[in-house]
Amino acid sequence: MNTRNLFDRFYYSDASFVDGTTLFHHLCRKYIPTPSRILEIGAGPSNPTTEFLASIGSVVGVDVSDEIRDNNSLSASCVYHGRVLPFRNACFDACVSDYVLEHIQHPALHFQEVARVLRPAAVYCFRTPNLWHYVTLGSKLLPHCVHLKLANRLRGLPSHAHDPYPAVYRANTPRTIKNLCRGVPFEVLDLAMIEKEPSYGRSNPSLFFLMMAYERLVNSCDCLKALRANIFGVLKRPHR
Would you tell me the crossing angle of helices 174-182 and 107-117 to the nearest 10 degrees? Predict the structure, then answer.
């Protein structure tokens, strides 16, 4: 059986189903006022999240790769070294990062820099993998060369798809994020654990059903939410 048909049958054909990216966009829309001047960290080339953000404000993007130059939804783009953000204090109404925190070598500095460039009462919305999910644990424990060979194949991506960037997972549990916020002027508004369709099960029907069973299990009760795939977070810079 084609795994595409399985995703349609068990997920996408359900009128109530909302995929993870759309759910993340809903979170951003809930907390980011319109219009806003938005900073997207790790914007990369053109993608659905930047396109969505451009519908609610002007988006300035930064990335460590010059692929950001190909992102047509940005009002401005900048290649930087991944540490100090190249912007003055308090110049953005919101900041967004989508699957970026897992790559940050110095998360305390990252949070400090995001807080610095945000205006008072502005928010930082992010999506990042949960360290305790089986996919993340596999990525962390396997050598990066093995992860490169497996990740795109398991997700059913074409051979020309971008290789995954190295990940360090230094800010990838709710507890770690809360601890980081204590040293930065950030208030935690929302930290949600989310498990959606098993994107790493696209290569094989047996793998799909195994991962779907896991998804059904961890979504069956809140006591298992710590094992869900992703962390959706919203942090707020205080008014002063």
Answer: 60
Measured between alpha carbons, how far is residue 181 from residues 42, 159, 189 in Å? Answer: 20, 39, 11
In angstroms, rounded to a whole number, what is the distance separating the alpha carbons of residues 188 and 191?
Answer: 7
Mean pLDDT for the stretch of residues 81-86: 94
Q: What is d(CA 33, CA 37) in angstroms, rounded to the nearest whole number?
A: 10
CB atoms within 10 A of CB 211: 22
| Total Cβ atoms within 10 A of residue 156 | 16
CATH class as words, domain 3-236: alpha beta
Distance CA 51, CA 212 (A): 29
- Whole-prediction pTM: 0.92
- Split at pLDDT 50, 70, 90, the class of 9 is very high
Sign of the torsion formed by the C-alpha atoms of 189, 195, 197 and 203: positive
CA distance 136 to 130: 7
Question: Can you tell me the distance from the alpha carbon of 84 to that of 103, in angstroms, rounded to the nearest whole number?
Answer: 15
Token representation of residue 70: 């190909």
| Region for residue 44 given its phi and psi (left: phi exceeds 0; alpha: psi -120 to 50; beta: otherwise) | left
Q: Could you tell me which of 11, 18, 4, 2 has the C-alpha nearest to residue 212? A: 11
CB neighbour class for 191 (10 Å; exposed up to 12, middle 13-18, buried from 19): middle
> CA 57, CA 38: separation in Å to the nearest integer?
7
The count of residues in the chain is 240
Give yes or no for a contact between 130 and 123, defined as CB atoms under 8 angstroms apart. Answer: no
